[in-house]
Amino acid sequence: MPFRGDPRACARWPAGTRLSGAVLAAAFLLAAAAPPAHARTGERQADLPAAVDAAVAEYRAATGLPGAAVAVTHGTEAVHLAGYGSTPSGAAVTERTPMAVASVSKSFTALAVLQLVDEGRVDLDAPVRDHLPEFEMADPRAADITVRQLLDQTSGMSDTTFGAFSRPQPASLREAVAGMRSAGLAAAPGERWEYHNPNFQVAARLVEVVSGASFSDYLDAHVFDPLGMADSSTNDTDQDLPPSAYGHVTLLGRPVAAPEPPAFGNGSGGVVSSARDMAAWLIAQHGGGRGADGTRILSADAVRESHTPSPGADSYGLGWQVGATPSGAALVHHGGDLFTSTAYQALLPESGHGVAVMANTGMAAGDASAIAEAVIAVIEGRETPPPGQSPLVVGADAVLLGLAVAAVPLAGLGVRRSVRWGARRVDAPSHGTVLRLLPLAVPVVLFAGIHRVVGFLYRGRDVAWIQVAYLYPAFLLLLGLAALGCTAVAVARAAALVRARRAAAR
C-alpha cells in the first residue's frame, strides 16, 4: 500500500505498446538470418546469473540498499536464485531468507479462491454472501458483490468509505470482516475499479469458511507444501513477521532499521517467502498451474483467467496486473509495498521468464520494482539508465532536518519573549489576543491530522497517522518540533498575559 498493495507498484510500465507492421517485418528478416532461437536462448541463460548479479550490485552500490533477494526462472527451471546484503539484524540475505512480499500476497489469495472454484465449492460469479453469510455492510448494494469482484477489485469497496488502516486493527480475518458491517460502498458493485486491501481480506475469510481451515493452514496444505515452499507462510499482522522480514526507512538517503507499523494484512499482504520459494511459485504460474515436478495446484484455465484483465477493471485480473515491458513484450505482474520493505513479481509469457524481487527498504524507495526493471532489461537485452538516488530527495531531507533543528532555539526565544508579549497586551481586547495566538495552533492541528492530508493527496487512500512517519520522517519530525514549540510559546504567552493582567489589577 503507496500503502500495502499500492497500485503504483502494480503498474510500472505502459500497457498496450505494440510493434508496427514494418518493425515486425524487419524483425522477421533479422530472425531468418540469425542463429536458431534455442541457441541464442541457451547463451543468454548461461550469461544471465552473472548479468543479474552485476545489475543488483550496481544498484546497491548506487542506492545503499541494505538487502535484497532475487529469483529468475525460465520455463520449469530456476535459473538464478540469490540473496544480497543483509537483514536489519546483520544476518546475510540468502536465497532461503524469508522476506515480506506485501501485496504480492493478493496473487496467493486469488489462487486459493480459484482452487475452490475448480473444485466446484465456490461460484466465482455468485454473491459473496452465498459462501460467506457473515459478510455484511451498511450499504444494501453489498449483497450484490460477487467473489470475482473481490479479486478484480471492482466490488465498490473503497478506502474513502472504510478506513482499513486508520481504524482499530483487527486480530483475525473474522474480525476484519466483522469490522466492515458499518461501512458503505463508494460505487455500485462492478461499476469501477478501485484498489482496496479489504477485498482480499474478505476473500481470504471466504477460503477459511468454505474450506473449514484457517487461511494459514489452507495455504500450507494447498499451495506451499505441494510446491515445496518450505520458507513461506502467511501472517495476520505485521508484528507476526519473522525478524528477517523487517526492513528500513530511508532518511538522508541512508537506510534506518525500523519495525513495521501496526497493521492487519492477512489475505491482502501477509505472505512471507524466499527467493527459492518464489521461484517455485513463478514456475507454477508459467506452467499453467503445475509445479516444476508436475504437481498441479490449479487448472490451466483458472491460471489463464487470473492473468486476464476483467471487464471494467482496467488492466487488473484476479490478483495480477497485465501490461507490457518497454520493449512491448507482454507482462503479467504485481507489486507489494510495506513501509519498511517492498516486493515485485513478474511473468514474461513470450520468453517464459519469471522474476521475483524482495527488498528490505520501504515504499518510499521503491527498490524491489526498480531492481525488477533492471533484471527484466537484462533478460530482454536492453540498456537501462544507471541507478542512483535523487539528490533532490536527499537535499529535501537535509533542509527539513535543518529546519527541525532550528525550530528548537526559535521556540526557546519565543518563550523567553513571552513576558514582554504579555505586558504589551494587558489592555488589548480578548478577541484580538486570541487571534494573535491562533496561528500558533496551525502546526499543532496539522501535526494531529497529517494522515488525513496525506490520504487526500494520495487520492483518498486511507493512512494511519504512524504511517506518515515512515513515509516522510524528516517532514514529520519538523512538524512535530514546530507543533511542540508553538504549544510552548502559546502556553508561555497566555501565562504571561494572565500574570500581567493580575499585576495591573493590583
TrEMBL record:
Matches recorded under InterPro entries: AmpC-like, Beta-lactam-related, Beta-lactam/transpept-like
Residues that span the membrane, as ranges: 392-413, 434-458, 470-492
Superkingdom of the organism of origin: Bacteria
MF terms (GO), sorted A to Z: hydrolase activity
Domain called Beta-lactamase-related: residue spans: 52-370
Signal peptide boundaries: 1-39
Alphabetized UniProt keyword annotations: Hydrolase, Membrane, Signal, Transmembrane, Transmembrane helix
Protein name per Swiss-Prot or TrEMBL: Serine hydrolase
Organism: Marinitenerispora sediminis
